[in-house]
Write a structure and sequence with these properties.
Blueprint (H helix, E strand, L loop, with lengths): L3 E8 L2 H13 L5 E14 L2 E15 L3 H11 L7 E5 L5 H10 L3
Antiparallel strand pairs: 1-3, 1-4, 2-3
Helix pairs in contact: 1-2
């Protein structure tokens, strides 16, 4: 079993997503971040359904880094309540998982 996680984050723009992704990789809070755009998001906010174009970040990280990763994203993000959710990596290429562990570190 691995302590690897995939963290999903949405951002308001390519610029914001790139800023967050670069910080997470530079600070070793994520080994890799993929930016996917555009993503159409429908969500309930401030009493009504919102329909927005966003950028989705897929961050490969480790569970022990989640608290620091969340804090760093919140410090850079324009949203009051940014989406930051983690899914466990239950299996993967041993070489990739080793690389992830070596590059997302305390």
């Amino acid at each position: 079993m691995t302590d690897g996680i995939i963290v999903l984050i949405t951002a308001s723009s390519e610029q914001e997503a790139s800023l967050i992704a670069t910080a997470l990789v530079d600070e070793h809070l994520a080994a890799c971040v993929n930016l996917i755009a555009p993503v159409r998001s429908l969500f309930f906010w401030q009493g009504k359904t919102q329909d927005a174009q966003e950028v989705l970040l897929l961050c490969k990280s480790r569970k022990p880094l989640m608290e620091r990763l969340c804090a760093r994203v919140k410090s850079l993000h324009s949203y009051t309540v940014p989406e930051i959710i983690a899914l466990p990596i239950i299996a993967g290429s041993p070489d990739y998982l080793s690389w992830l562990h070596d590059n997302a570190k305390d």
